[in-house]
Write a structure and sequence with these properties.
This protein is an alpha+beta fold. About 55% of the residues lie in helices and about 10% in strands. It has helices at about 15-25, 35-45, 65-75, 85-115, 120-145, 155-170, 180-190, 190-195; strands spanning about 5-10, 30-35, 55, 60. A four-stranded mixed sheet has the order 2-1-3-4, covered by helices on one side. The structure holds glutathione. Glutathione binds near residues 51, 52, 64 and 65.
Length: about 210
């Protein structure tokens, strides 16, 4: 298979989601730091939205993380179930991860990342954490008794693992009242794809 290039940055949840997907399906990609000025000159003209990730595979250029996941699934047959009815739920969870889960988390991460601890706005962090916790109740219920959100590992896991990884790294735990989700996240962290794709500067607790 021809080389894949992924313009990305380590802590971007959309980029991490794609890195996890690539690792899970065993496809190698040349990861390029999107922040470097010389690489910006290459990827920005490819993306009218000027966001990362940007994915290049031969003549195929994709600048939306979900379209990248769909493409990876199309060329490998993995990550999204084959039956139409079964494809709905992982796609919904993936969308929920992008549009709802990230909202509160973003407040916490942006606040902590932009300032020294002494000058953090604790109200912003508390409000963001509360919003995040409210948003994960749906996931606790959606998980049911299975190991994964769908029948098998899917794009739902790729998307949410990146979000929960960032939450943990920025000090937002999954409360005890969400035991299924806690167990699910602990299982996701044990997968090789987690360590292989996690941003190097972030620290994670071991899960044994
Ligand atoms: N809908 C896009 C969202 C991508 C996105 O918002 N990426 C952020 C980084 S997390 C970005 O590139 N922001 C502009 C920038 O950092 O210059 C996707 O799923 O790929």
């Amino acid at each position: 298979m021809a080389d894949i290039i992924l313009y990305n940055k380590p802590e971007c949840p959309f980029c991490w989601k794609v890195r996890i997907a690539l690792n899970e399906i065993g496809l190698y990609a040349n990861l390029v730091d999107s922040n470097a000025p010389e690489t910006r000159l290459v990827w920005e003209p490819l993306n009218p939205k000027k966001t990362v990730p940007v994915f290049v595979h031969n003549e195929v250029i994709i600048y939306e993380s979900n379209v990248i996941l769909e493409y990876l699934s199309d060329i490998t047959g993995e990550l999204i179930p084959s039956i139409a009815r079964d494809r709905v739920f992982p796609r919904l969870i993936n969308s929920y991860s992008d549009t709802v889960i990230g909202v509160g988390l973003k407040e916490v991460i942006f606040e902590k990342r932009s300032k020294d601890e002494g000058s953090w706005d604790l109200n912003r962090i508390q409000a963001g954490t509360k919003t995040f916790w409210e948003s994960i109740l749906y996931l606790e219920n959606a998980l049911g008794d299975g190991d994964f959100f769908a029948e098998e590992y899917s794009i739902a896991e790729c998307a949410l693992t990146a979000r929960f990884g960032l939450a943990e790294a920025y000090g937002v735990a999954i409360p005890d009242q969400f035991p299924k989700l806690r167990n699910w996240y602990s299982r996701m962290k044990k997968r090789p794809s987690f360590r292989a794709t996690a941003p190097e500067n972030l620290l994670f607790e071991r899960t044994n």
